[in-house]
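Researcher: Quick test of sequence recovery. Tokens follow.
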């Protein structure tokens, strides 16, 4: 799909709903003394239901750190991360893990599917780990696979699937059950351009159906599918844009810092 078609998809989608993810004054410092690295420095960002936000920036700019903090895989040195009304730093490690299982889905570049499990079993696994009965988890998994047009591969194992099919299964796993926040870290990085476009189409459809998405990508043509693109440089938000053309993304990052609410 062209960038114009992606823009058309955004314009015909429902208006974004309430804020689901809030980052306020987020700073993350690694190491101490001379070895100290400030991965993020005072970042503000919100994501609403029905909104896909892309994050771009050079290697080392803080993109993956931002995603890890948003999902509770890491905690900020300073600042607050909220999922709806829940402050993640108020939860212990067990509480954050439970919150991720129930409300946050991750999609990774390398799929992270378990080779010994079928597609349906991979998708059902987070629900079963959360105590859902196997039969119900199976029903929810099949519903999620149907939504990403992968129901026909439910009984296949990951090594029997193409890269694009594996990524679609990973998307189904990320949003099975009640979870509605999708965090995607370079989900098209291991795919060719055609398959990458197909995966972005699935992500866009899930967000248009009411989920919220935060996407890390190096590719302007994939960021063009987002409602907003946030640029990071040296741990600082330097700009944001709502592009109609992917080439807009190549020149949008400027010296300005913004509160991206």
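Model:
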């Amino acid at each position: 799909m062209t960038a114009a078609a992606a823009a058309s998809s955004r314009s015909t989608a429902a208006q974004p709903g309430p804020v689901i993810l809030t980052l306020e004054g987020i700073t993350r410092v690694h190491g101490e003394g001379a070895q100290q690295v400030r991965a993020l420095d005072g970042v503000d960002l919100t994501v609403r239901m029905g909104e896909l936000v892309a994050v771009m920036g050079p290697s080392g700019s803080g993109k993956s750190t931002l995603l890890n903090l948003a999902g509770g895989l890491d905690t900020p040195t300073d600042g607050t991360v909220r999922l709806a009304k829940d402050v993640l730093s108020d939860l212990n490690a067990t509480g954050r893990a439970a919150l991720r299982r129930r409300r946050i889905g991750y999609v990774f570049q390398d799929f992270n599917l378990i080779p010994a499990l079928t597609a349906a079993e991979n998708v059902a696994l987070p629900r079963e780990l959360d105590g859902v009965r196997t039969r119900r988890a199976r029903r929810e998994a099949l519903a999620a696979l149907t939504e990403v047009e992968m129901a026909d591969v439910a009984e296949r194992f990951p090594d029997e699937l193409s890269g694009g099919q594996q990524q679609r299964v990973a998307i189904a796993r990320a949003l099975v059950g009640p979870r509605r926040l999708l965090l995607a870290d370079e989900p098209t990085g291991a795919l060719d351009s055609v398959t990458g476009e197909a995966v972005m189409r699935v992500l866009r459809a899930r967000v248009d159906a009411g989920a919220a998405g935060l996407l890390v990508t190096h590719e302007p043509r994939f960021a063009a599918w987002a409602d907003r693109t946030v640029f990071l440089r040296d741990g600082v938000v330097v700009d944001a844009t709502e592009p109609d053309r992917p080439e807009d993304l190549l020149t949008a990052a400027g010296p300005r810092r913004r509160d991206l609410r």
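Residues 3-112+178-251 form a domain with the Rossmann fold fold (CATH 3.40.50.300).
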